[in-house]
Design brief:
CATH class of the largest domain: Alpha Beta
Oligomer: single chain
Shape: elongated
CATH superfamily of the largest domain: NAD(P)-binding Rossmann-like Domain
Mean pLDDT: 88
Radius of gyration: 23 Å
Bound molecules: NADP nicotinamide-adenine-dinucleotide phosphate
Number of domains: 3
Number of strands: 8
Length: 301
């Protein structure tokens, strides 16, 4: 649409022309009622309270989308990260303070650490029309509601750092089509109906380190066999990348079905699966998931 407008206007666009035209084009499309309301995130003035690692990842992912018109207002802390994002991306500015972020935004993402949340958030004046997206994992929606009143459109989201390269998924609760559309463009958004489901899904994010330990165990064993370090790493990484595609290639197959497909009777996959199962490895893993779930729920009690 932006390119068409430039062509029609017979101009060679500068960076700022592109941004202005993208907004104008989007406004025309809405006036025409020619796009669904799920695209209204195009008009978000997005503010962040807390400019740390996660905010940097979201802004990087967002601004890596060529034609987007979401303007971003950052809180001045962390100073270095905020300045670097503002320098790197168009339409990203650093506000004078946290209140200025709220005053200049229609959607506010809360991205401070839980330890300072109770000190920082209640000192701010939210508007009833603010949409608040809390990224603070350990604050329940109920608790956030008390901190951001009179704002009442509240969503909890759990983006992951890989959002910077528009990969991975963000769970959001409760379902919200605009916020889902926003995170959908930065990988995938999974809308969740209730806090229990959200908390259970968030346990999945506690398994990354063990996943890499699993790969490292294979890699370390290869080294004991004299296999070249880089060759072993390359082989493992390439095979597991391909395996990670299997659920997409067979969308109706459960994970156990995929496991059984590889566990040919009497074969070497079946051998390792049986040995690990008999050793109680997967039972222990389930117990670890239970323990993390309890911890997450306790942090929000
Ligand atoms: N990182 C993740 O993978 C991840 C994933 C899911 C959820 N989360 C949640 O997202 C939130 C942010 O995580 P993060 O990893 O981005 O943490 P972080 O890197 O520590 O960022 C938090 C930022 O908040 C800033 N800050 C401190 N006091 C402030 C104040 N009064 N006003 C405004 N900003 C202030 C800090 O600035 P200074 O550096 O100047 O102190 C820091 O840069 C946390 O609640 C975390 O639980 C993180």
């Amino acid at each position: 649409m932006t390119a068409t407008l430039c062509k029609a206007l017979k101009i060679v666009p500068t960076k700022s022309d592109i941004s202005t035209l993208a907004r104008a084009a989007a406004a025309i499309m809405v006036a025409d009622n020619s796009i669904s309301t799920s695209n209204t995130e195009h008009f978000m003035k997005l503010g962040f309270v807390g400019t740390g690692a996660l905010t940097a990842a979201i802004v990087t992912g967002l601004k890596s989308i060529g034609d987007n018109s979401v303007s971003v207002l950052l809180s001045p802390r962390n100073e270095e990260i905020a300045a670097s994002l503002a320098a790197r991306f168009e339409d990203v500015q650093v506000a004078a303070d946290n209140q200025a972020v709220l005053d200049g935004s229609d959607t506010v993402m809360l991205a401070v650490r839980p330890q300072v949340a109770h000190e920082v958030i209640p000192s701010l004046r939210f508007r009833p029309d603010h949409r608040v997206v809390s990224l603070i994992a350990t604050l329940s929606l109920k608790e956030i509601a008390t901190l951001v009143a009179p704002a009442h459109r509240l969503i909890k989201a759990l983006p992951m750092p890989m959002i910077a390269s528009r990969q991975g998924a963000t769970i959001i609760c409760p379902p919200d089509k605009d916020v889902a559309a926003f995170f959908g463009k930065l990988g995938k958004a999974i809308e969740v109906e209730n806090a229990h489901e959200f908390d259970a899904l968030s346990v999945v994010t506690a398994t990354y380190a063990s996943f890499f330990k699993y790969l490292d165990t294979i890699h370390a064993w290869l080294k004991t066999q004299g296999v070249d370090d880089l060759k072993g790493r390359d082989y493992i990484a390439t095979l597991f990348k391909a395996l990670a595609n299997a659920p997409d290639s067979s969308p109706d197959a459960g994970f156990m079905h995929l496991s059984q497909e590889y566990a040919t009777r009497g074969g070497i996959n079946e051998q390792i699966l049986r040995q690990l199962t008999n050793a109680g490895l997967f039972d222990t893993f389930t117990q670890s998931l239970d323990a993390v779930h309890k911890r997450i729920m306790a942090s929000q009690a």
